[in-house]
Amino acid sequence: MGDKIVQKIPAKPEFIRLSKVGIYCRISSTRQEQLYSMAAQVSQLTRNVLHVPGWILQDIYLDFQSGADADRRELNRLLEDCRSGLVDTIFTKSVSRMGRNTLDLLNIIRELRSIGVRIIFEQEELDSSKYEEEFLITLLESFAQEESYNRSENIRWGLEKRKQDGTSGLYKRKCYGYTKSQDGTLTECPEEAEVVRLIFQLYLDGNSIISIIKILHEKNIPTATGKEKWCTQAIVKILTNEKYIGNVILGKTVSEEFPNKKRRKNVGQASMYLSEQVHPAIIAKETFDAVQTEMQRRSNVVIDDHGVRKRAGTRFVSRKFSSTQDENNDK
Q: Cα separation of 102 and 23, whole Å?
């Protein structure tokens, strides 16, 4: 027998799995230094995607808000694109960029894994598709959540401290009727102050909020933002704002417990801070108090002998309308 002929079968090229990648970046605010951070995140992650064989960049998703905010539109858009098959790999800087908290992140990971989508965390070099790394991911998120909580509490403490000692910038926050001087204090804006006095006087003269809005429109008096027509809420805010007698009350609203950031009216569950004669008054205290009493009278709410608030049987009718109605009845 002759020599055997051996034929070489070349090795197949390494199989490259194509991945449709979505880059997700988040910063907590739109301050300049944060915007620089966002640009750096996007630049670095984009370069990394382009250097991985088989990775195809589908889209970049950018959120400019706190991680504690439930309404992260770009993250929600990214998740929808994952569910529809447009993205099968999420590439993000770190574990702390994704979920609001540990449970939220864990739910996202497990939902995406069930539809074949993985999250790559660049900084920690973790891949959510590997079951053995899930514990480490959630552990790191727990640390990030605790750090965020401590930072939030420190900020809250600082804000409370400045309210207590009177150094908070909120005491000098501008509102309609005032302007800020060079040293940051509030001074009267003559034109707007006259409008404020007019609104208070019209209300005490018996005009309703709707009637006041109509009069301001007829007099071509624009709102603080230059709009032609005033809204009801703007008039109510002016009539109830203690700033017009020179005082400031801080703490009228409170934020919910971490990580929620929604604010609700403070009805006694937290301290409030009153600072008197902080700036020049536009309205006399007697006038202001008279308006508050009148607003309560018109509110159609009474307190019975048991201290229960309930609606009264009648409602307020402006004097102008009432007079017109009386004239019609006399005819």
A: 21
In order of 73, 147, 291, 304, 313, the CA distances from 295 in angstroms are: 40, 46, 6, 18, 17
Query: At the topology level of CATH, where does 19-146 sit?
Result: Rossmann fold (3.40.50)
Bridge partner list, 23: 60, 91
Tell me which fold the domain 169-312 belongs to. Hect, E3 ligase catalytic domain fold (3.90.1750)
Closest C-alpha among 71, 68, 64 to residue 152: 68
Domain-wise residue ranges, the chain: 19-146, 169-312
Report the predicted TM-score, pTM, of the whole model to 2 decimal places.
0.52
The pairing of beta strand 301-303 with beta strand 309-311: antiparallel
User: Under 8 Å CB-to-CB from 5, ≥6 apart: which residues?
Assistant: none
For 196-240, the pLDDT digits (tens) are: 999 999 999 999 999 999 999 999 999 988 898 899 999 999 999
* Of 119, 100, 95, 92, the residue nearest 23 (C-alpha): 92
Q: 19-146 and 169-312: same fold?
A: no
The C-alpha atoms of residue 211 and residue 193 are separated, in whole angstroms, by 20
